[in-house]
Design goal:
The structure holds two protein chains of two kinds.
Chain A: E1 18-20, H1 25-43, E2 46-49, E3 53-59, H2 62-71, E4 80-89, E5 96-108, E6 113-125, H3 132-136, E7 146-150, H4 159-167, E8 170-173, H5 181-194, E9 199-202, H6 203-218, E10 231-245, E11 248-252, H7 256-269, E12 272-273, E13 289-294, E14 307-316, E15 325-334, E16 337-344, E17 351-358, E18 361-362, E19 366-369, H8 375-383, H9 390-402
Parallel strand pairs in A: 2-6, 3-4, 3-7, 4-6, 7-8, 8-9, 10-14
Antiparallel strand pairs in A: 1-5, 5-6, 10-11, 10-15, 12-13, 13-14, 15-16, 16-17, 17-18, 17-19
Helix pairs in contact in A: 5-9, 6-7, 6-8, 7-9
Chain B: E1 27-31, H1 36-51, E2 60-65, H2 71-85, H3 93-100, E3 103-107, H4 113-130, E4 136-140, H5 147-156, E5 167-171, H6 179-192, E6 198-200, H7 208-218, E7 232-240, H8 249-274, H9 283-296, H10 303-308, E8 309-319, E9 322-324, E10 342-348, E11 358-364, E12 371-378, H11 388-391, E13 399-405, E14 409-417, E15 425-433, H12 434-437, H13 445-455, H14 464-483, E16 489-494, H15 501-507
Parallel strand pairs in B: 1-2, 1-4, 2-3, 4-5, 5-6, 7-11, 8-16
Antiparallel strand pairs in B: 7-12, 8-9, 8-10, 10-11, 12-13, 13-14, 14-15
Helix pairs in contact in B: 1-2, 1-13, 5-6, 6-14, 8-9, 8-14, 9-14
Classes of the chains: A alpha/beta, B alpha/beta.
Chain lengths: 403, 516
């Protein structure tokens, strides 16, 4: 490892704790624990040292790192043993590693008991970036799983990144932050294929859970379940909006959530691409996608046909984050009967309305709360899983196949 | 009738979701819909399920009671219940509006056949309007004396089964007043419903930490080898309440602590601690093993009852800084009442795992604090190499405590050396706190149990033979107590840990109660 400057000269990161030389990080943390124990004795507080996992957060700049640092407050009573925030600064050609260490304690239930975890911050520049794995390895708590939270687009094919992934048990991305959805989905799939031992997960998949639950609920009733095999048209709308800067208007498009939903349905219901059809007619530059899929003919099937038409379109919605799902309409035909199933967000970002229309008449509409969870909550859920999320990984592969 | 389809049996979209099985829309009919349990527990639980949306669209509630309410009044009452008792407050207006549109009320006496006919018509109407497909849950939330009447009328009206969907019945505790009445109630229930339709609820089993007993024992390899007579000295199960009767004098006079706590909650906790690992985690496998424990309980009869049980009744005293009256001065209680408000029992399980290991059960009202815990005390190290003078007598046995409420968690007590030049040993606790390790809010016991009933999973409900086996054990004690003079009910000061003799009861065995 080339290391021109293994100190913290020049950079000020007040929230990161005390600047220390890399080789003194462990000593500094021991010192901090001792001080904390002394405080406990005098203030009669009880500090709890949790030891469940290592969380490594990779960020492209100090601003993002500070945001991630703030999220950790909500995770204090989760499972963290040690957090290492890495800030990559590729603009600085000098090879250097600067480090900070701190102990972060937050009250649990009341101030009498506080949960603490160790936090190390690394600022890595120049060539040292390619040696991140070697820098990080000795800083991990032994015998605990490593979760890598990657903020931003994936650096496809970068060796240093793959080394970091190899060191991890689980890599967490957020496709909501992808600048280029399609490219990044390809990168995620490449990563899964290249490093099958590491589990990959996406915070966006967590955002979809409530939607998947509501769609599944339509077909829970044995009376309505046959309509599942007659699905023939699905329309999905996702929010988009525009920003203007210096007289230039840019439309923010992120169809990843919608794409994942289609990937999930395709995987779960065993649909395949209808190769005989003139589709795809997707206009991905404008965030519009069309596919014609087909289901395998099944003995005893009640469906009136084997084709399924899927459409994803953006809808301008100034009050919602780009990419947020707004509407799912599904229609189904079985034995000459039509069923229509809908989940729509309307104008209220916190609720959706579900409805079912059958030949016998409409079923009562239902309003369901659809809280938009903070990243910290989604991250917390991901930190509870250690192994592969097979369904997610297969859904992403399906999306890649569609693109 | 359309031919059977390939996907009809399961819903593939449920794969990977929290609830793996299909949750079919249904109607829940609550008998005793204006009562306290409905108000405090059932309606808030249903609302929480609607808010977190495991409840299917179309789910409906029918309140069945005598009071002259209509849909609107009942909905208003329900809203007040949710506002007061839901763990998720304040109520979400949009979700409430949607949920409450499925709430209905039917006024009827429980013994009026016409009421059940009207109920049948309403259920058919809801099936059509809300797509509930003939799926019904009847929830008996009335005084137990009305169970037979309601069950018989349900049967007479043909509501006990239907061709379209499933029908289930939830029966609240107490399930019977003694062995004979429990058997009689079972007979009456099973004349109308099949056993697989019957869900006898003990809300203790719906608590996350009670379920965690099984996970703790059966998902961790390190505990099973020491979970037996070779390593365990004894087990203490404590269910302490700091409250008194809270206006339930009439009920409590008839039940007492042994019926209110021991026969159901405490014996259930004991079975979970003592049972053999089931062959699978399904309703019958788990319950088969629990029943074996109850059958293996050494029966207490005659003189054994005198030596192995203590019953007490609280006198006046101070609890939580408030002066409280004695039991016989409570409203609705006879001034010469001999009802037990405190019970301690020592019992043994006659099987290979537990032979010779005493299980001490104690429960009482107006004790110093509200708490439920199971403490497994292990045997001392076989040879103490540290001199008593050096250890200052500080070497205590290891104790594993499973705390059910209020601060749910697990702690293990072990000895550690105090830093310094001498060999001073001190007992320290290694603590796992449920609430601080898992940020997710725990569902209320009723939420879990209602959901399980909707899913047709009866693992956490009590089976007929379990109820009767528990009563068989308790009946021996009740019969002997009936023969004993009232002086054997010992008074204890409210705010204390029970009659003083309860301590002697343990000292005789060379043990002592834990001070939780």
């Amino acid at each position: 490892m080339t290391n021109d400057k293994a100190t913290t000269q020049g950079i000020q990161i007040p929230w990161a704790g005390k600047p220390v030389r890399l080789e003194e990080v462990e000593t500094q943390l021991v010192r901090l624990w001792r001080m904390s124990a002394n405080n406990m004795r005098t203030a009669q507080n009880l500090n709890v040292r949790t030891s469940v996992l290592n969380l490594v957060i990779c960020t492209p700049d100090i601003q993002t790192a500070q945001w991630a640092n703030a999220q950790l407050r909500d995770l204090s009573n989760t499972h963290l043993a040690r957090v290492t925030i890495i800030i990559f600064d590729s603009n600085d050609p000098t090879s250097s590693v600067s480090s900070w260490a701190t102990l972060r304690c937050f009250p649990v239930i009341s101030d009498v008991m506080r949960h603490c975890f160790e936090q190390i911050t690394l600022h890595i520049t120049g060539k040292a970036i390619s040696a991140t794995e070697q820098i990080l390895r000795p800083l991990l708590k032994p015998d605990l799983p490593v979760y890598l939270w990657w903020l931003g687009d994936l650096p496809s094919g970068r060796q240093g990144f793959h080394d970091l992934v190899r060191l991890s048990n689980r890599v967490i991305v957020d496709s909501d932050r992808f600048f280029s959805s399609e490219e990044d989905i390809h990168s995620v799939v490449e990563l899964m294929d290249a490093l099958p031992n590491c589990a990959i997960s996406d915070l966006n998949w967590g955002r979809l859970t409530a939607w998947r639950e509501l769609i599944a609920q339509f077909f829970d009733s044995s009376e309505l379940r046959p309509y599942l095999e007659g699905l023939d048209n699905i329309e999905i709308e996702y929010a988009t909006n525009s920003i203007s800067q210096d007289g230039v208007t840019e439309t923010l498009l992120n169809p990843t959530n919608a794409l994942l939903l289609v990937g999930w349905m395709k995987r779960t219901l065993g649909w395949t691409i209808d190769t005989s059809h003139p589709y795809p007619l997707s206009d991905s530059a404008n965030g519009i996608y069309h596919w014609q899929l087909e289901r395998l003919p099944q003995a005893g099937s009640l469906a009136d046909g084997d084709s399924i038409k899927i459409t994803i379109t953006p809808r301008v919605h100034a009050d919602m984050a780009p990419g947020t799902l707004c509407l799912i309409n599904a229609s189904s035909h079985i034995q000459g009967k039509k069923g229509m199933f809908s989940i729509s967000r309307k104008d209220d970002p916190e609720h959706v309305v579900t409805s079912v229309i059958l030949p016998e008449g409409p079923r009562p509409v239902r309003t369901v709360n659809m809280t938009i969870y903070k990243e910290s909550r989604l991250l917390h859920d991901e930190l509870e899983i250690l192994g592969h999320d097979q369904l997610f990984e297969e859904a992403v592969h399906q999306v890649e196949g569609l693109l | 009738m359309p031919q059977r389809s390939a996907v009809e049996a399961t819903n593939p979209l449920r794969e990977g979701l929290r609830i793996k099985n299909s949750l079919e829309p249904c109607v829940m009919v609550i008998f005793g819909a204006t009562g306290d349990l409905t108000h405090r527990k059932l309606l808030p639980a249903l609302y929480n399920l609607a808010l977190e949306h495991p409840l299917p669209a179309g789910f409906s509630v029918v309140g069945f009671a005598r009071r002259p309410y209509n849909d609107e009044i009942f909905r208003q009452q329900a809203l007040e219940s949710v506002n007061e008792f839901s763990r998720q407050k304040p109520v979400n207006p949009q979700v409430w509006e949607s949920f409450s549109s499925g709430i209905h009320y039917l006024q009827s006496d429980f013994n009026d056949p016409a009421g059940y006919d009207k109920l049948g018509e309403l259920l058919t109407q809801l099936d059509q309007e809300r797509g509930t497909s003939g799926n019904r849950i009847f929830y008996l939330s009335t005084p137990p004396s009305q169970y037979p009447e309601i069950i018989q009328h349900l049967g007479a009206a043909g509501l006990n089964r239907n061709r379209k969907g499933w029908t289930r019945i939830i029966i609240e505790k107490p399930f019977g007043h003694d062995l004979q009445s429990a058997r009689e109630l079972n007979r009456q229930v099973l004349k109308v419903f099949r056993e697989e339709q019957v869900y006898r609820i003990d809300h203790y089993l719906g608590k996350e930490t009670v379920q965690n007993i099984l996970v703790f024992r059966l998902a961790n390899g390190i505990f099973e080898p020491v979970w037996n007579r070779r390593y365990v000295d004894h087990v203490q199960i404590t269910v302490a309440e700091n409250i008194g009767l809270e206006g339930r004098g009439g009920y409590y006079e008839e039940s007492g602590a042994i019926r209110d706590m021991i026969q159901n909650h405490m014996l259930q906790l004991m079975t979970l601690v003592a049972m053999e690992p089931p062959i699978a985690f399904d309703a019958d496998s788990v319950r088969d093993e629990k029943v074996k424990v109850l059958h293996a309980l050494q029966p207490l009869t005659g003189r054994d009852v005198t030596t192995n049980t203590i019953r007490g009744q609280y006198g006046a005293g101070w609890v939580n800084g408030h002066q409280v009256v004695g039991y016989t001065d409570e409203p609705g209680v006879s001034p010469v009442s001999t009802t037990d408000t405190y019970v301690a029992i020592k019992t043994f399980i006659d099987n290979w795992r537990w032979a010779g290991v005493p299980f001490y059960l104690r429960t009482g009202k107006h004790l110093p604090k509200r708490l439920t815990e199971i403490a497994i005390q292990f045997k001392q190290a076989p040879l103490m190499i540290f001199k008593r003078s050096e250890t200052h007598g500080q070497v205590e046995p290891n104790v594993l405590v499973l705390r059910i409420q209020p601060d749910e968690g697990i702690s293990l007590k072990f000895g550690a050396k105090v830093p310094g030049t001498d060999m001073q040993i001190r007992a320290v606790n290694m603590d796992f706190l449920y609430g601080s390790s898992f940020v997710r809010q725990q569902p209320e016991a009723y939420e879990r149990l209602i959901l399980d009933c909707m899913l047709g999973d009866s693992t956490l409900f009590t089976r007929r033979d379990e109820v009767e086996a528990a009563w068989t054990f308790v009946q021996g004690i009740l019969d002997e107590w009936k023969q004993q003079p009232s002086e054997t009910i010992l008074s204890y000061e409210s705010g204390s840990w029970g009659p003083q003799i309860a301590d002697e009861f343990m000292w005789r065995d060379g043990r002592r109660w834990r001070r939780p």
